[in-house]
Amino acid sequence: MSPHGYPPLREWAARHMLTSLLMQPGDSILVEEFTYPHMLECVLLAKGAVPLPVPLDAHGIVPAQLRQVLEQQRSRAGGSPLPRLLYTVPVGQNPTGAVTPLERRKEIYLICREFGILIIEDDPYFFLQYPQGPAKVPGIPHATEAGSYLSLDTDGRVVRLDSFSKFFSPGLRLGWAAAQPALIERLMTMLTAQSLGASGVTQLMTWQVLSTWGDEGLECHVCAMQREYARRADIIHSAAHRELAGLAQWERPVAGMFMWAKLLGVEDAYDILPQLREAQVVVVPGRIAHPRVHDPQFK
Length: 299
Hints:
Elements: H1 15-22, E1 28-32, H2 37-45, E2 50-54, E3 56-57, E4 60-61, H3 63-75, E5 85-88, H4 102-115, E6 118-122, H5 139-144, H6 149-152, E7 158-163, E8 175-178, H7 181-195, H8 200-244, E9 248-250, E10 261-263, H9 273-278
């Protein structure tokens, strides 16, 4: 088995390898204002990067705010270097659940192109979209027509990461990367040096299942997963309407596995964690997903 991965099922380089390849300690990197906590804590902050938060709304990164952050960075005294990268989760964003529409992605891509920024498109929830609920799930054909930053890329500035772990089986820890060939070759070399590649048994097992299913079987499985997550989204959305009306603001999830709620009149969710535990309610305070997670003044 090649350490680069089984040819039909190449293991994508882990996020820390990608950031090691594309940035140095002290470099700034653009992230969504609330972003994937593991990427924030275990990769960016651990490697000495400086995350620059870009404001979000219900549809992901706000292009005008992205431009403003970049222009402010460029105009600062001392000529602060511009960020090298934008890290984004455009579908079922972790933790807000936002889905960035294609037209907005086009605006964001053009801004990144203007400022010379590479885009890491981390899209593990791409196949878990259910905008019309459990009764009418899109399946694979419609999902692939939704577009991505990679589909907009004209000059090799996008690295797209996909994963089997969210729609196939979480224990597999398998995924794949798509980018310009020269970058993929360097990622494969780094992967070989650091981990000798993914488990050959896991890769072969996944390939055997997919080849046995065929396109029709995979389509059936993806639809089943979309229906299940849409059903769960409806349940939590209905429960929020019943129990949190007037106490919180939220959007009905349309992709992924997260629902983001803003508690009205509560400055910091940490302040009410003891009461929530007593009521056997599990929440994740939003601050753990913000670049200022360790700032005691941040609420």
